[in-house]
Design a protein that fits this description.
Chain lengths: 352, 315
Amino acid sequence: MATIRFCQGRLLGAEEERQVDVSDYRGVLIFGEQQNGQIAPVVYELLGKGRELADKLDEDLAVAVLGQNIEAQAEELVHYGADNVYVYDDPILANPRDDPYSQILTDLVKEVRPSVFLVGATPVGRSLAPTIANKLRTGLTADCTGLEVDSDGNLVQTRPAYGGNIMATIVCLRNRPQMATVRYKVMTKAEKNQSRRGTVIVKKVKDKLLDRSKIKKISGESKEISIAEAQVIVAGGKGLGNPEGFRLLKEFADSLGGVIGASRAVVDEGWIPYKYQVGLSGKTVRPKLYFACGISGTVQHLAGMQTADVIVAINKDPEAPIFSVADYGIVGDLYEIIPKITKLLRNRTLKR
Amino acid sequence: MPSARLAIIGVVNKGQFWWMSSQGTTKEAREARRAVLIRINMCGKSPKRLEHFPVRIIVCIKQVPDTGEAQLDAVTGTLKREGIETVVNPFDMFAIEEGIRLKERYGGRVTVMSMGPPKAEEALREALALGCDEAFLLSDKALTGADTLATAYTLACGIVKLRSYDVIICGLKTTDGDTGQVGPELAEELDVPHFCYVRKIIEIKDNLATVEVSLDDVYLEVETPLTCLLTVTKETNLPRLPSFKRKLEARRMPVTTWNAEDLQGDMSRFGLSGSPTRVVKIQPPLRRLAGEMIAGDAETQARILVERLSERKLV
């Protein structure tokens, strides 16, 4: 290892055209991420938004799916609004990895020249998109929560920054494609329409792909519903007083058919694993019903759960900011109130 | 004779190889460092082959405003910066700690680098106080206004100027820009493999790094050749606090500043001119409106809530 590596990078490499003719680039391309051979749920949201943008631009919507034995699923995406589906089916693509994926997608972008290229802001997308943007030397806006096109056909991207304290509007006028990663559970899913027609284009995977890293082991795939998917979330914060408080919340969540969530404060304390964290630095959630128990409601937390249909807040502190976004606010001791709610719900079920 | 101090090479217990090299950034000092590395290489080929070799580590950090409550100036619509304290980006603390831990495990050297205004030297000194060995600040008016592409390019120029390294570590993202893009873009700019969301560096051996990556609920054990770039999550470690002694030492340690010209890059790729994206507007986030506060004793509150929720068919 102590061999000396002189890394030149690509800094002094051949300069590619940087200024592009914007009118050369047309249409919207979506990265059709797959996880374990299933199209990722965020892709359907990208298709929903992508269709809307493509219609406004009066251009085509395309999706690129990379994976192994993925063709049948890829074809389905036509019913969700894609005009063109590009399929790359190869064992090397079974698991998303930046090296092969970024080269294939970069080549595809150079070939089809989309004006807009959207990638889900998943762990895979957040690593892959910057790699591609850098290869293409174009702009990339992270974690968008709003996407529109203006009268000139430019993509107007909105995203939270500074921990959710501000919303920034970002454009990329001179470079193409205009790339963005899009936060999951923010855009509306595309509806399935069996009568929609589109073209499926099976692409060949180049033999010579740079492929430097390898996956040695995959572990910890849990069967539990991810909080991002849950319809009901019971989230706890510092107001629980101690980690054991989550037992009460778990019981409560189970009785509602929901899952538990948490604020950043208690995740930082180590009371509960990171995967339960709701908020800007955790997950954005969009359940039908969200209980915030003992959560004060920092901006960064609010940014992750404000789009819930109904928010119930239970907190001892009447001044807690969480009450300013709650549909129903209860000032009181959660250890007193939650068991009462659980009991009422149980009795009601018994009566039925 | 140049002012570079020559290296001391010594074997410390359990086959751990420790070395010290010259500190300077002059050409001579760098030559001296390279000479040292070559010596170590030769030792590695000796019959008593050592398990571990020193790892040359670069940690990239950013100084950010210390605030969960960034405020917009109502008149200008820009961010208020006056009177706001600055800190090392909290996510970068895990990167610094991981760099130092790698050094403690394998021996080596941690170089910390930042792009920012002259004031960002404070952040670099904090990293030195924690145990980093040398610090570089990339600072110039020409570098301001950089988006993630231009930032990655600038850092890449700085790293290429340093010439040799094994592992580059970045924080997952910053608390101000909040993009998490600079790490992977920097790796691509340098043409080295990278992994984001690294929660554990398992081993560095035989030109390979084995790390564990956390993708939501799934953990991947992955292997990548060196040189590589890793962005680490806060699960990786618990950052240490600087010792008082080290803090005093860090005050006297040099922080090398490079301007745009020093970086020997393509000037059109620095700063605003090298940034494809533009922020055209910032505004406060939309807030949903408060609903009903349910009063009464716990019994009543619970009853009314359940009524309301069942009216809306939520329970």
